[in-house]
Each structure stands twice: as C-alpha cells, then as structure tokens.
Design brief:
Layout lengths: L9 H11 L9 H13 L3 E4 L5 E5 L11 E6 L21 E4 L2 E4 L6 H15 L8 E6 L7 H5 L9 E4 L7 E6 L1 E10 L9 E9 L17 H16 L2 E7 L10 E8 L3 H19 L7 E7 L8 H13 L3 E6 L2 E17 L2 E10 L2 H16 L4 E8 L9 H14 L4 E5 L4 H8 L4 E4 L4 E2 L7 E3 H16 L6
Parallel strand pairs: 3-6, 3-7, 7-19, 8-18
Antiparallel strand pairs: 1-2, 2-6, 4-5, 5-21, 9-16, 9-17, 10-12, 10-13, 11-12, 11-15, 14-15, 15-16, 20-21
Length: about 475
C-alpha cells in the first residue's frame, strides 16, 4: 500500500508526514516547538523561540539574491483536534493516521492537520533545499493560532526583518488572498441554582450527530446545519409537548468549528417517554428533509440514563432556550461590492449548560468593523434579555486589501507563467494571521495562498494531492521572482 511519502513533491510530503507523527493540538505544542527548532539548528540556521512561543528560523539569501527584499514564510504549528464519536484517538499522544483516498489525502476518523501542516511542511522544504533561489528568508511558525491566534497577537514588531510576508494558510489553490475578515469572540454566561427533578420522572439522554461541521469562516455559507441550532429546535418542542426539563446540554467544542454534535439530558414524566421518542424520530426525519442535500444522514438518538441530581429552574430554562433559538447563526450579509463573498457572519460554536452554569460561545466575523460591531451587539441584546452576562474577547480587525501590492503583481505574473491562466484575487471570510501581524509590523507587503483543503476543522478534512504540487511550484518560483530592494 502506498503512503503519502510516495507523493509529489516528495520534500513537502516528507515533512508533512513527520508533522503528523507529532501530536500538536492547540494548547499542546511543546513537542512540535522543540522539533521545529531542532530542525532549523540541524540545518545550521539561526533558530529560536520568541517571547510568546513562536518559532523563527532564518536562512541567508542564496548567492546572487542578496539584493532581494526579505521574505517571511508564515504558518502555524497547531491543529484543530476533532474526531468522529466512534474513533478512538488521543490528540495529545497519538499520531495522525493518513490515508490516500483517490485524488485526496485524509485522516482515519480525525482531522488531518493539513491546516496548517501543509504550509509549515512547504516552508520546511524550502529551508532544507539547496537548489531553490531566494533572497533573505525567515520562517515564522506561530503558536496556537486555532484557539485565538495567540502567537500572532503576541508577536513583537522587532522579531521580524523581512519586508514581504507570504502566509501559507489559505485553502483553495489558484486563489491569491489579499484581505481577510476580522473577528470577535462572544461569551454569554449565567449562574443558576439547580432544582431537584421530580422523583417520579425518568431521565433521557439525547444525542444529535452525523453533521459535517467544518470551518466556521470558510464554510459558513455552505448551508451546513449547526448542531446547537438543531438541538434547540428539538428541546423547545420537547418542553412544550412532553413537559421536558433540561438538566444539561453540551454542543460543539471549538470556537472556529461549526458544531457537528450536541448532547442533552432531559427529565420527563415516565408516561411521556414514548412521545419523546416519537418526537426524536419526527425531528430526525424533518432535519434530514431540510438538510439532506448537504449533510450526511442526521441522527437523533435517545437512551434512558440515571436521574440527575438537578435540573435548570424552569424560568431560566425557558429563557435560555428562547435566546438560543432566537439568536442569529450563519451568514448575515455578503460584501456589497463582491456579492459572492461573505462579509459578516457568526457561528454559535459552543453551548455548555450543566451544574449551575450556562455558557453560549460565538465567533463573529466581518471584513467590516462596523458590521462586526452591529452583529456582536445583536447577540449581546438577545442574551441580555435573558439576564445573561455577555463578554467580548480576542477582537481583531480585518486585513484591508492592497491591489497595488508589488508581491501581488509578482505572484500573479508567476502564476500565469506556470499554469497559463490567471489566479483569482480574493478576500477570505476567515481570520488570517496576516491582519494581526500586519498591524504589529506596519508596511509589510502580504499575500496568502495554499493548496486545496476541504472541511478543515472536521474529521472530513482532506487535501487535494495535485494542488500541493502546484502550490509548492508557485512558492518556489515566486521566491525567485521576489522584487529587488528599492
């Protein structure tokens, strides 16, 4: 059986394979940090970890290229840890198992880590190569991008020396990104005192699963279902029709991933058990009718469990369910001047209600700061009516495009020469680190590109094999075409 080590370009796939063998979920990047620093030092290159945990590796210009502008190749070292419910995998200990599936590479029931392992692997291949022509080169591999762009936010302005930043974290080959959305994390929370359930009631666990999930920016316009929004429809009807009381609810686990599963525990009068099971069957059929053209079969499973010690007080329960039901999720507006590109959206990422505390978390994105503020205030208003505390964190502005960028001109010309067609110039509805780094290091000429990935942040994540070859060819030739210093 062939492995990814047999794929071209071999230099990139070799390093990507090595990255898959090192557990690197967000928040647990100690080993990958050590590996990258050792990799650079073993090549005889200046390699270090900065104040926030980013890895920086510097490589001098190849002979004759000393007069070129310095280039920074930038990616992030962490990956999103998502797995199918029936997959046994410990992201802090186990390597990723890769599978060649026709024209694609995917993982076995988990996220692949091509986001952003492919970009990092390409940068490593450039560092290792003795044949690629380039000017002064830096590789910046940032820490914990997926959980708040920690490395980008903590980067100091004097860490970098280059004038051009090539971000290798885009996910559509043939697209050159020159702008991105800003974002803000929103958390609505409430403390409450549980009440005892009726001793004659029975408890039922509800499991809603089978959704694709995906990237909450790149795929927010795909029409995919959000497990939390489906669960709240079921729960509201259960409260109304079978006298259900909510004990707990957990849905989603990553701020930037569309929730694929949700779990809730309800108590109901035992005589209503059959009606609850019938409601689950009805909603399962309904949701599959609504989303059958987009989602894999959606499942709603019911099973009796031990009676919990407490349930949410009825008035608070009703307010929580009403607020979650009413709150916006998904695309709010497209960019008026670019109507095929999302401008403003939100992802109801996490619902966590249990043991006297309720939290609902969102990631709101927009390339317009005013529209981002409008949507954030809409969410604040919705949960404020339920008496919940609403907090904003991790806010960052978008990256404003520069259509006169010298590196954009060079990359367009390079792409046309290589592939005999024009690349697409786009603004991405996701939070690229370019926006944050560009604010810290004013004057950087920036562009973002990468191979084709599908469904990052979900176990369906996969990377198109041929696109990796084209992506790396473009990177190599673009480095040789780097503009001369003025």
């Amino acid at each position: 059986m062939s492995t990814i080590l047999s794929l071209n370009p071999k230099a990139v796939w070799k390093h990507f394979h090595a990255l898959t063998q090192i557990p690197r979920p967000s928040g647990h990047i100690e080993e990958i940090t050590k590996y990258l620093v050792k990799f650079g030092k073993d090549l005889g290159l200046e390699s270090f970890v900065d104040n926030i945990g980013n890895v920086v590796i510097r490589k001098p210009a190849t002979p004759g290229m000393e007069n070129r502008k310095g280039v920074i190749l930038q990616g992030h070292m962490d990956m999103v840890p998502q797995k199918n419910n029936d997959t046994v995998h410990d992201f802090e200990k186990d390597p990723i198992e890769t599978i060649i599936d026709g024209e694609w590479v995917r993982a076995n029931g988990t996220t692949l880590g091509a986001d952003n392992g492919m970009g990092v692997a390409a940068a490593m291949a450039v560092l290792e190569s003795k044949d690629i022509k380039h000017g002064p080169l830096e590789v910046l591999v940032t820490a914990d991008e997926e959980t708040g762009m920690v490395g980008a936010f903590g980067l100091k302005a004097d860490t970098l020396k280059g004038e051009i930043l090539l971000n290798l974290d885009s996910e559509s080959e043939g697209d050159l990104f020159i702008g991105c959305a800003g974002g803000v994390d929103i958390t609505a929370s409430l403390q409450y005192k549980e009440v005892e359930p009726d001793a004659d009631d029975v408890a039922v666990e509800i499991v809603l699963k089978g959704l694709k999930g995906g990237h909450s920016g790149m795929e927010i316009d795909s029409g995919r279902a959000n497990a939390n929004k489906l669960m709240v429809r079921f729960l509201r009807e259960a409260v109304v029709s079978v006298e259900a009381r909510l004990s707990s609810w957990q849905g989603g686990n990553m701020r930037n991933a569309i929730p694929r599963e949700a779990h809730a525990v309800l108590t109901i009068p035992k005589d209503n058990l059959e009606d609850l099971e019938g409601l689950a069957e009805y909603c399962e059929t309904l949701f599959n009718e609504e989303f059958g053209a987009i989602e894999t079969p959606i499942k709603i499973l019911t099973s009796k469990v031990d009676l919990p010690k407490g349930v949410v007080p009825e008035e608070i329960q009703d307010n929580l369910i009403s607020s979650i039901y009413a709150c916006h999720n998904g695309v709010l507006r497209m960019i008026p001047a670019i109507p095929d590109t999302v401008e403003t959206s939100t992802n109801m990422a996490i619902v966590d209600i249990k043991e006297g505390k309720a939290e609902v978390k969102f990631l709101t994105r927009s390339s317009s700061d005013s529209m981002k503020e409008y949507l954030a205030t809409m969410i604040e208003s919705c949960f404020g009516m339920a008496g919940m505390k609403v907090e904003f964190s991790g806010a960052y502005s978008g990256w404003n495009p520069n259509i006169e960028s010298p590196i954009l001109k060079a990359m367009k010309e390079t792409y046309e020469k290589l592939f005999k067609k024009e690349p697409s110039i786009k603004v991405i509805h996701a939070g690229l680190e370019c926006g944050i780094i560009g604010a810290t290091v004013p004057g950087l000429d920036m562009i973002s590109f990468g191979p084709t990935l599908e469904s990052p942040h979900s176990p369906a994540e996969r990377v198109h094999i041929e696109s990796v070859d084209k992506f790396y060819d473009l990177l190599v030739v673009a480095l040789e075409a780097t503009p001369i210093k003025e």
